[in-house]
Structures are given as structure tokens and as C-alpha cells.
Amino acid sequence: MAEFDSVASYMWFEEEARTERRHFYSKHTEDFFKAVLATGANRVLNLAKDTSLWRAQRGHAWRTVKYPDLTLQLTTPYPQSE
């Protein structure tokens, strides 16, 4: 079975796609894509109906939730941009 060259394979791919090449890939990126295709089925996860998900993002905002005898500061996603 195909495996990734390194735990940093995605980071290398992302850097190449963002700063160097977008339409012509290096051998390293082609190997990364092959490994994703070969191992992707192992990462399929079926979620129960009505499972709540948050989208991935860098950082978070805070919100205050007040109860009669308790005040909590909880993390929340950044507000949606207009």
C-alpha cells in the first residue's frame, strides 16, 4: 500500500501549490496525490444524523454565557464575514 513520504508531506504540497506550482506538479507532489488516493478510503468516517460540526479555521472568538450562579467564557467560531 502507498504511504506518505513524511508526516510533513501535506505541508510540502501546500507550500508548493501556494508559492511555486499550481498546474505542473513535482514528483513529490505527484507521490503525495497517489498516497492520498491510495489511503483515502481508510479515512472515511460515517457520522450520525444531526451531528454538529464546526468548520476548520485558525483561531476562535470568545462568548460569555451567564447562568444565575455562574459565568462562563466559551470558545466560538469567528463571526461570519460580510
Summarize the structure.
29% of the residues lie in helices and 17% in strands. The protein is α+β, with helices and mostly antiparallel strands and 82 residues long.
Q: Can you characterise this structure?
A:
The structure is a single chain. This protein has a two-stranded antiparallel ribbon with strand order 1-2. It is 29% helix and 17% strand. The chain has a domain of 35 residues. It is an alpha+beta fold and 82 residues long.
Topology diagram in text:
Elements lengths: L8 H11 L7 H13 L21 E7 L2 E7 L6
Antiparallel strand pairs: 1-2
Structural class: alpha+beta
* Largest β-sheet summary: 2 strands, antiparallel
What is the subunit organization of this protein?
A: single chain
Terminal-residue CA separation: 45 Å
User: What percent of residues are in strands?
Assistant: 15-25%
| E-strand count | 2
* Model regions low in confidence, pLDDT < 50 over at least 5 residues: none
Number of helices: 2
Mean pLDDT: 85
Order of helices and strands: HHEE
C-alpha Rg (nearest Å): 20 Å
Shape: elongated
- Strand line-up across the major sheet: 1-2
- Helical content class: 25-40%
Identify the notable features of this structure and list them briefly.
alpha+beta; 82 residues; 29% helix; two-stranded antiparallel ribbon
